Amino acid sequence: MNETFIPTSDYNKRKWYIIDCQDKRLGRVASLSIALLAGKHKSYYHPSLDTGDYVILINAECLTLDRDITKFHVFSPGRPGRSLKRLVNALPERIIEKCIFGMLPNGFPRKHLSKRLKVYQGSQHPHSAQNPIKLEELK
Predict the structure, then answer these.
(1) Cα distance between residue 53 and residue 36, in whole Å
(2) Which CB contacts under 8 angstroms, 24+ apart, belong to 102-108?
(3) pLDDT digits (tens, 9 = 90+) for 31-55
């Protein structure tokens, strides 16, 4: 008889990973971050349990986007001259967070996995006490 392995709380040791976004593509960083946040890189991954890790993204302003897209948002429709506003890509942290948040599955993971994502401009971050593991294999 086959027995399904379900990890217990002994397997719930969360690691911290750090990814440098210097000259990296947005989609590649986002897909790797989601796999780390969900714990899919672990051998004892189970979809019904949260076995993911923390992810720190540094140098967010140096991220490479495919193209410059001007985004517009309608704040108050029906008001001529004031309703259509152009959104400026001035906050690279928001761009990365919105991309990763949109790629997460609906329900419980979307709400809780996004809290373990830390995005910073520049190479300084306040999480050095957690001894993050630096990932270099991202192309």
Answers:
(1) 6
(2) 103/30, 103/31, 103/34, 104/34, 104/37, 108/50
(3) 999 999 999 999 888 888 888 999 9
Domain covering 14-135, topology: Ribosomal Protein L13p; Chain: A; (3.90.1180)
Which of these, 115, 75, 97, lies nearest to 21 by C-alpha position?
97
Residue located via tokens 């410059």: 68
Q: 0.85 exceeded by the pTM?
A: no
Which whole-number Å values give the CA distances from 67 to 18, 36, 126, in the listed order? 26, 26, 31
Contact 114, 104 (CB under 8 A): yes
The two most distant CA atoms of the chain are separated, in Å, by 70
In angstroms, the CA 7 to CA 65 distance is 38
DSSP state for residue 115 in the 8-state scheme: G
Q: Give alpha helix (H) positions in 16-81.
A: 26-38
